[in-house]
Amino acid sequence: MRQRFISAGILVALIAAVVLLSLKFSIFIDIFVAFICAAAVFEFNKAVKTLHLYQMSFISIAFAFIYPMLLSYGMSTVICYIYVTMMLGVLVFFHSKISFKEFAYTFSMTMIITVSLSLIVSLKDLDNKHSTLYFVFSMASPWLADAGAYFSGVFFGKHKLCPKISPKKTIEGAVGGVLFCIMTSCGVIFIFQWLIYNINVNYINVILISLCGALLSILGDLSFSVIKRSYSVKDYGDLIPGHGGILDRFDSVICFVPFLYIVLNYLPIVLE
Taking 90 as the threshold, does the pLDDT of residue 87 lie above it? Predict the structure, then answer.
């Protein structure tokens, strides 16, 4: 437990540093997302035992890093096309070493992880004036749901949610996570409203987005747990002691960020 808190504190400090830097230079958000995407794809390849197939894994990790860095410059289609073409070339020229099953795992999950997480950069471009708020909210909402679910499950958990996928998750924990996410997300937005931006906020929309975000974070967590179970892996990595790897911490974010990007076009948080 102590190690878990220490690691969480270091991660929060890192996010805070990115936030402070991005207030002046928003490119730091791009850099942060690029490293997260590359690390997540690396961990996935390691977990499913395709990392040694460097012809494929190296290209995938490189794509995961480059895509978010060039997204703001309208290069997403070009980068995706180059990646698809190179991966198809790998499938043809190295078919004797790389099976289609290995190719399909790596290609599909690289696209899911990279494109989904890179929408954090797209959130910045959606509203550059309040980019830092969206950057924090995109991660805070699912992480707060995870934290609330963890502690609610520890103290009140009795009924298993999905015992075959994640034995420790409970229905009580999920409910607690949803409620905690809604309350604390409103708190996070309130801090930005009064200390950083001095803006008008639609808290009804914040509550609705947080509610859906908490549910989607559970879906993301469980879906990546299915992959871990399939390969008998406890965690995707050990970069964050007490939490696992980057992918263990960002699996819920992967499911939430696309939803947030879409819904903000219809349910804006910031009212001009």
Answer: yes
Measured CA to CA in angstroms, residue 29 lies from 160, 213, 220, 223 at distances of 37, 21, 22, 26
One-letter amino acid identity for 107?
A: F
pLDDT digits (tens, 9 = 90+) for 216-251: 998 988 888 888 888 887 878 777 766 678 888 898
Closest Cα partner for 19 from 140, 101, 116, 108? 140
From CA 267, how far away is CA 68, in angstroms rounded? 25
The helix or strand, by DSSP H or E, that contains position 169, with its residue range, turns out to be strand 166-170
Tokens read off for 209:
């987005």
Q: What is the pLDDT of residues 192-224, one digit of tens each?
A: 888 877 788 899 999 999 999 899 998 988 888
* Long-range Cβ contacts of 86-93 (<8 Å, 24+ apart): 86/59, 87/56, 87/59, 87/60, 90/55, 90/56, 90/59
Is residue 136 within 8 Å of residue 192, measured between CB atoms?
Answer: yes
Instruction: Give the whole-angstrom CA distance, residue 214 versus residue 179.
Output: 9
Contact by Cβ (8 Å): 236, 242: no
SS3 202: coil
Tokens in use for 263?
């819904």
* Residues 254, 256, 262: CA angle, nearest 5 degrees: 115
Taking the model in full, what pTM does it have? 0.89
For 108, the token pair is: 């599909």
